[in-house]
């Protein structure tokens, strides 16, 4: 700490979720840098610290939703279920943080309000809500992609006499729904997890659906001792698979085309995938995400399942009225989601045809004049994804350029890792990276390792600053666009991949859809060519 009161470090990392924890470990314990992590919560966990809503569980399988950089760490932890539940992930991340002795370098309850690049000193000046000032050569944002809650501005919400909650800002003490009339807005991955759990407790649950969604059963359950032993014995193979597939999951996407088999065989394969459950459903054929007609066969199979499960034909029709290709939006997986609509205490309102016009003191007023009386409103309405968490950090780069201005027409990065005009700032899982289309820890490990290697290079060579050349950013943005348009993903016009869920947000397809394995290779090549596309200066 200097006389000015500014605490000086080599690197400042913002966020203490999976990304921030691993980045701290790499920079501090492998490179020997002085590092400070700033975290607004009072504990580690990031996304999992905040998302404590009923049914909160990861869609990646537990043996893949963890760090795999250390064989010892991987083998020492024991998961209990096929998919880890929020409290178990929190236990895991706290265990990792303690094991690697990370907490002593994390400032908790510390919200960053501004990050300013000082070109003369070549330092990032960071200010916190509590009035602290810190400075470092390297600024690394580890703020996650889905951490800025999107609460729709429905008129009258302030007049509501009941309680309302967003799933991503859930009270730590939980919410007791017993005997209460609950309204849930949103049927994305989160909403689909929450419905059956809330329905089991509430007096009545009304689900307000704007966009119907596919879902495949998760088939969650306790892990057998045999499986646990198998994951440990096969650590290397599992890691190799996760590193070689486009989505970082521990399963292989079939190299079979949907058209290689007869309609009957196709049905048998879909049926087997449905029984097996989980995200693997989309791996049934290699062309499901690139060939619309191939996708239609999966989509129709899944719609038929909804009609089969849901007894009331009118409700089934609303749930199956899905307007986008399967997996063009993030495909949810569930535990008894569609089954929940067979309960007497669950009803579905299609708010596309009959929107909520306003929230009244007593509930939700629909366009057709109906007032649905509610005691609690649950907003499962998602996030200002990818750019939201970065833009709220108050970042200004070279020549006082605010990030919000640099990205006024949508995010522009090189490799999702750096922004032109923001020297020595690195964005883990930034827009333009494949992270949200990938099993997250696999993407995070690659980003954090690449950043650590890059910083090691700069220090070894005595290079003061690194930032992308504008032409490299142009080329990457174009490549991200091409990669998206080679798939069906942009066809889901209302997805958060496009920023379409937040009114006024520029519509840019943000994630890199070219696959994690390909991306890993591109990043490695860039580094091997002396950080091609970056400007390195003294
Ligand atoms: P998502 O996937 O963005 O889903 C949000 C849901 O909320 C979706 O059904 C939206 O409908 C709906 N929504 C949003 N705003 C409104 C308004 N104003 N009125 C009615 N309905 C609305 O977020 P999740 O939290 O479920 O999942 C985020 C990620 O977490 C997920 O992808 C996984 O990676 C884990 P829409 O589709 O926009 O019409």
Instruction: For the record, give the distance between the C-alpha atoms at the N and C termini, rounded to a whole number.
Output: 25 Å
Structural class: alpha/beta
Number of helices: 16
Question: Could you tell me the number of beta strands?
Answer: 20
Strand content: 15-25%
Mean pLDDT, to the nearest integer, reads 97
Bound molecules: ligand NA7
Radius of gyration (Å): 23 Å
**Spans with pLDDT under 50 lasting ≥5 residues?**
none
Instruction: State the share of residues found in helices, binned by percent.
Output: 25-40%
Q: Quick one: biggest sheet?
A: 8 strands, mixed
**What shape does the CA trace take?**
globular
Protein name: NAD(P)/FAD-dependent oxidoreductase
InterPro entries: FAD-binding_Monooxygenases, FAD/NAD-bd_sf, Flavin_mOase-like
Cofactor: FAD
Family: Belongs to the FAD-binding monooxygenase family.
Task: Give a structural overview.
This protein has 538 residues and is α/β, with parallel strands linked by helices. Helices cover 32% and strands 17% of the residues. The protein contains 16 helices and 20 strands. It has helices at 18-30, 47-50, 71-76, 86-99, 189-199, 225-233, 235-244, 263-276, 292-309, 313-320, 337-340, 388-391, 403-406, 440-461, 470-485, 516-528, and strands at residues 6-14, 35-38, 106-107, 112-118, 123-128, 133-141, 163-166, 181-185, 204-209, 216-217, 333-334, 346-350, 356-359, 363-366, 371-373, 376-379, 395-396, 425-427, 465-468, 534-537. The strands form five sheets. Strands 1, 2, 3, 4, 5, 6, 17 and 18 form an eight-stranded mixed sheet that branches. A five-stranded parallel sheet has the order 7-16-8-9-12. Helix 1 (18-30) runs parallel beside helix 14. It is globular, with a radius of gyration of 23 Å. It starts with 5 loop residues before the first strand and ends with a strand. 49% of the residues are buried. The mean pLDDT is 97. Bound molecules: ligand NA7. Ligand NA7 is lined by residues 146, 152, 185-191, 208, 210-211, 330, 351, 380-382, 494, 496, 501. Keywords: FAD, Flavoprotein, Monooxygenase, NADP, Oxidoreductase. Belongs to the FAD-binding monooxygenase family. GO terms for molecular function: flavin adenine dinucleotide binding; N,N-dimethylaniline monooxygenase activity; NADP binding.
């Amino acid at each position: 700490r200097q006389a000015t009161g500014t605490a000086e470090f080599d690197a400042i990392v913002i966020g203490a979720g999976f990304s921030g924890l691993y980045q701290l470990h790499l920079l501090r314990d492998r490179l020997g840098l002085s590092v400070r992590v700033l975290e607004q919560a009072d504990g580690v966990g990031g996304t999992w610290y905040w998302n404590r809503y009923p049914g909160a569980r990861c869609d990646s399988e537990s043996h893949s939703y963890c760090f795999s950089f250390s064989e010892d760490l991987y083998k020492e932890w024991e998961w209990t279920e096929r998919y880890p539940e929020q409290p178990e992930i929190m236990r895991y991340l706290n265990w990792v943080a303690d094991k690697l002795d990370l907490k002593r370098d994390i400032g908790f309850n510390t919200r960053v309000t501004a990050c300013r690049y000082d070109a003369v000193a070549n330092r990032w000046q960071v200010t916190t809500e509590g009035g602290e000032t810190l400075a470092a050569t390297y600024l690394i944002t580890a703020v996650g992609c889905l951490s800025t809650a999107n609460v729709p501005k429905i008129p009258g919400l302030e007049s509501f006499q009941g309680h309302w909650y967003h799933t991503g800002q859930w009270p730590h003490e939980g919410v007791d729904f017993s005997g209460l009339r609950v309204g849930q807005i949103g049927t994305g991955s989160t909403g689909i997890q929450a419905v059956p759990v809330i329905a089991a407790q509430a007096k009545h649950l009304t689900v307000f659906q704007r966009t119907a969604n596919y879902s495949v059963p998760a088939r969650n359950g306790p892990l057998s001792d045999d499986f646990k032993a198998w994951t440990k014995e096969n650590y290397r193979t599992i890691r190799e698979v996760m590193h070689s597939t486009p989505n970082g999951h521990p399963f292989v996407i079939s190299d079979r085309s949907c058209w290689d088999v007869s309609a009957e065989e196709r049905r048998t394969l879909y049926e087997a995938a449905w029984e097996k459950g989980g995200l693997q459903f989309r791996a049934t054929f290699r062309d499901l995400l690139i060939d619309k007609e191939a996708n239609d066969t999966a989509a129709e199979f899944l719609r038929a399942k909804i009609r089969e499960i849901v007894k009331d034909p009118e409700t089934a029709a609303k749930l199956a009225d899905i307007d986008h290709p399967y997996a063009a939006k993030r495909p949810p997986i569930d535990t008894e989601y569609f089954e929940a609509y067979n309960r007497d205490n669950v009803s579905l309102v299609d708010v596309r045809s009959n929107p909520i016009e306003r929230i009244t003191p007593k509930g939700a007023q629909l366009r057709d004049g109906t007032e649905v009386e509610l005691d609690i409103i649950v907003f499962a309405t998602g996030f200002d994804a990818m750019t939201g968490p970065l833009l709220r950090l108050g970042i200004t780069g070279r020549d006082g350029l605010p990030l919000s201005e640099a990205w006024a027409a949508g995010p522009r990065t090189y490799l999702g890792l750096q922004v032109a005009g923001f020297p020595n700032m690195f964005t883990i899982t930034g827009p333009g990276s494949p992270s949200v289309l990938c099993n997250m820890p696999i993407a995070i490990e690659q980003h954090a390792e690449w950043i650590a290697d890059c910083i090691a290079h700069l220090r070894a060579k005595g290079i003061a600053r690194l930032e992308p050349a504008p032409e490299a950013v142009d080329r990457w943005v174009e490549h991200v666009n091409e990669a998206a348009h080679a798939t069906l993903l942009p066809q889901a016009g209302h997805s958060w991949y496009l920023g379409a869920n937040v009114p006024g947000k520029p519509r840019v397809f943000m994630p890199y859809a070219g696959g994690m394995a390909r991306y890993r290779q591109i990043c490695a090549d860039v580094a091997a060519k002396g950080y091609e596309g970056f400007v390195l200066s003294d």
